[in-house]
Write a structure and sequence with these properties.
kinase; binds adenosine-5'-triphosphate; transferase; nine-stranded mixed beta sheet; binds 4-amino-5-hydroxymethyl-2-methylpyrimidine; UDP-N-acetylmuramoyl-L-alanine:D-glutamate ligase; hydroxymethylpyrimidine kinase activity; HMP/HMP-P_kinase_dom; 20% strand
């Protein structure tokens, strides 16, 4: 059984963060583990508050896992301040963690800052150089590459800039542009486009968390980077197509659509 670790924040309503990551791992039939960095109070209408765990507690969780278990892939989500970022980076380096998928979470869909403004430079200098792949959305890519991305050509330019900062693979997600949901990968040499059809729904809570966790699960299973992204893009496309409402605001995607097939075996008495 492949073992995948998420280092991220808790989302009380279960659509994003640690909860989305663990659901995604389960749906990919890998064994999921979690390091909680922050506890958020949030629902489908937004993030109400966030409480960061002390770095000592985060460090103890990471040491507990790596001192005992061989981790096949790591997904990094919400790390809210520069002390947490440098602690996580130092420990992942120390334990020689492999297949690190960095989702540089910065701001929630409702506008709550999940990363302090002054921590972006720490994310760039500490985490980008050690990750296997970084998966920013347009807004995050703008801040990291200092650009104003408007189209696919701009996405390509930003990919190259972020690759120069030390990320081996860069996947910029086009969910926030208009038209099709096209994600662009740069592998240091060339570009790949992963094209999804834009689905008209408000229920897209946790799409970024889900995509990055799926990539980590697929890398753990041994697929190469392009195959891992391609499978994960299919997974998120189906998960959004089957998304649903659970409250008044932005609902979650369906991690387990594949398990909801039509029942073919009935019983008789
Ligand atoms: N309406 C949509 N239809 C189809 N695909 C979508 C849609 N919205 C987002 N996606 C896809 O979902 C994935 C996540 O992208 P997105 O840009 O939403 O991430 P994000 O902003 O980091 O998400 P999060 O809200 O979790 O922070 C990408 O593959 C993107 O193309
Ligand atoms: C804890 C958490 N991580 C990530 C996101 C993504 O937006 C969120 N809303 N909450």
């Amino acid at each position: 059984m492949k073992k995948v670790l998420t280092i991220a924040g808790s989302d009380s309503c279960g659509g994003a963060g640690i909860q989305a990551d663990l659901k995604t791992f389960s749906a990919h039939l890998v064994y999921g583990m979690s390091i909680i960095t922050s506890v958020t109070a949030q629902n489908t209408q937004g993030v109400i508050d966030a409480y960061d765990l002390p770095v000592e507690v985060i460090e103890k969780q990471i040491r507990a896992i790596f001192n005992d278990i061989n981790v096949d892939a790591v997904k990094i989500g919400m790390l809210s301040n520069s002390r947490i970022i440098s602690t996580v980076a130092d420990l992942l380096k120390f334990y020689r963690a492999k297949n690190i998928v960095l989702d540089p979470v910065m701001i929630s869909k409702s506008g709550f800052k999940l990363l302090k403004d002054d921590a972006i430079s720490s994310l760039i200098s500490n985490l980008i150089p050690i990750c296997t792949i970084i998966t920013p959305n347009i807004h995050e890519a703008n801040l990291i590459a200092q650009m104003d991305i408007k189209n696919i050509d701009d996405m390509k330019k930003a990919c190259r800039i972020i690759n120069d900062l030390g990320a081996r693979y860069v996947l910029i997600k086009g969910g926030h542009l208009n038209d099709d949901a096209i994600d662009v990968l740069f592998d240091g040499k060339g570009y790949y486009q992963f094209k999804g059809n834009r689905i008209k729904t408000k229920n897209t809570h946790g799409t970024g968390c889900t995509l990055s966790s799926a990539i980590a699960a697929n890398l753990a299973k041994g697929f190469d980077i392009v195959e891992s992204i391609s499978k994960s893009k299919n997974y998120i496309q189906n998960a959004i197509e089957n998304s649903f409402s659970i409250g008044l605001g932005v609902g979650p995607v369906d991690h387990f659509y594949e398990f909801r097939g039509v029942e073919v075996i009935k019983y008789e008495r």
